[in-house]
Amino acid sequence: MSDIENVKAFAKRLREIDKTYAPDLDKIDEAFVQQLWQGQRFFSTNMEAIDRRAIRVLKPGVWNHDEGPDFMHAEIEIDGQLLVGDVEIHVKASDWYAHRHYLNSRYNRVILHAVFFDDDINLRTRLQNGKRVPTLELLRWIDVPIGDVFDETKKTEADATRFCRVTGNRLNLQVLRGVFESLGSERFLEKADAIRLFRTRLNFEQILYEGIMEALGYRHNSTPLRELAQRVPFENFDQKSELEIQTILFGVAGLLPSQREKPLPVEVVDNPFIVALESRWRASEHASRPDHMTAARWRFGRVRPFNYPTRRIAAMSQLIHHCQGSLMMYFLPICEKAATANTPKLWRAIQNELLALLMFEPTGYWQTRYNFGKEGTRKAALIGSHRALEIIINKILPVAYIWAVEADSRQLQDAILQLYSNCTKTQDNTDIRQIKKQIFTEVQPIALLKSTAKIQQGTIRLHRNYCADRLCDLCPILEHNAIFPEDG
């Protein structure tokens, strides 16, 4: 072997030794990392942030299952100084910037950024107010093999049922209904409070726009869709055609055919609609900006074609075009009808009017397609009835409520709460299914409650705020004696 070859071989060995370790993150999601933090599964209470500051966790905080930081009211000692605040959890350190938390004032109370793996070059995490907080890489401190933690995670739901003090008892369904309705009211007012906080920096149009975008994304694409709405504010669409709106959203999202790593067939990109999109994008002021999202930011695998982000962006484009410059004035007049409604029939009619504003038929290219070049949607509505109803319950009504609060209209506030109480139920999610399994039986199924959306929301709040955190001593079902004493 020549001297040059020897040097190259030696250099190659050095590079292999010096390679940065990167774990396989395909199976790691944020919920898993949150569970690690909740259980504090670390071999030492004395940890070290990536900037070498000493970290000692006294209280991990209260797990927040809604919008905002993941754990609230944590107590953490940082370099010997006790701090009380919030903790944000991510799979990767770069997710803080990918999710644009550095632009969101709701995260200014964060005192620690805990991540599974540090893939970033920033030693500290920057908040919206300019302050910087330490980043803690949890992978270095986990006390058991990752596979064991996965196994424990799978047992969580079974354990919750086994140790629940309500399980197996005869339920007082009348009292239980009242408990769920009360929890449902609490959940609605919590959402309204979050919107009131957003009002310190956003107008109603932007709040509603971001909220609907997030709701359209379901679990897999809710975060990138909200991020897209933040990158392209609602005011950017003033006086724009539906084609122009789609051009901007698809282009900034990084989902146009020309932005794909793998080129699409010629017969796809030669479609007149795609040609028009690409032409307008090249001429757009947004095309020259460097901060576009990429296709890797979006989730297509394990997502039903009807819920593909391309189809959701088409839906939002159509909604923006239909609202003619104001989402608030598109929905609010219908919500205001609740102030004069006094029967279930009238409340149902108002709900149906709101649904009709969301469930318009697709036009043009998206009549039969769910992605560029992919057909098979049979002219289905871009927003289905279940998703539209969830948008009304979780996004439109809370925003309308805060509008009524700011207008000092007690009548409209009460009317919107009444409309919320009479909304029909939506599809069950994992929280509701877990409570079904945990509390109800074949003899007393949940169907006996005749669930409404409000009761469903109360069921979600019970699971997220009590069962998931094992706050059994504070269980509202036990507190309000919603189970009959054992026969004896």
Short description:
Helices cover 47% and strands 11% of the residues. The radius of gyration is 25 Å and the shape is globular. It is α+β, with helices and mostly antiparallel strands and 488 residues long.
Strand element count? 10
The helix-and-strand class reads alpha+beta
Query: Which runs of at least 5 residues are low in confidence (pLDDT < 50)?
Result: 10-21
When the domains are counted, the total is: 3
Q: What is the helix/strand order?
A: HHEEEEEHEEEHHHHHHHHHHEEHHHHH
What's the helix count? 18
What fraction strand?
5-15%
Give Rg in angstroms.
Answer: 25 Å
Helical proportion, percent range: 40-55%
Averaged pLDDT: 88
Distance between the termini: 90 Å
Shape descriptor reads: globular
The main sheet comes to:
8 strands, mixed
Descriptive account of the structure:
By secondary structure, the protein is of the alpha+beta class. It folds into 3 domains: 30-150, no CATH class; 164-183 and 425-479, no CATH class; 202-421, no CATH class. The protein has 18 helices and 10 strands. The strands form 2 sheets. Strands 1, 2, 3, 4, 5, 6, 7 and 8 form an 8-stranded mixed beta sheet that branches. Strands 9-10 form a two-stranded antiparallel sheet. A hairpin with a 5-residue loop joins strand 1 and strand 2. The radius of gyration is 25 Å and the shape is globular. The relative contact order is 0.10. Mean pLDDT is 88; it is low at 10-21.
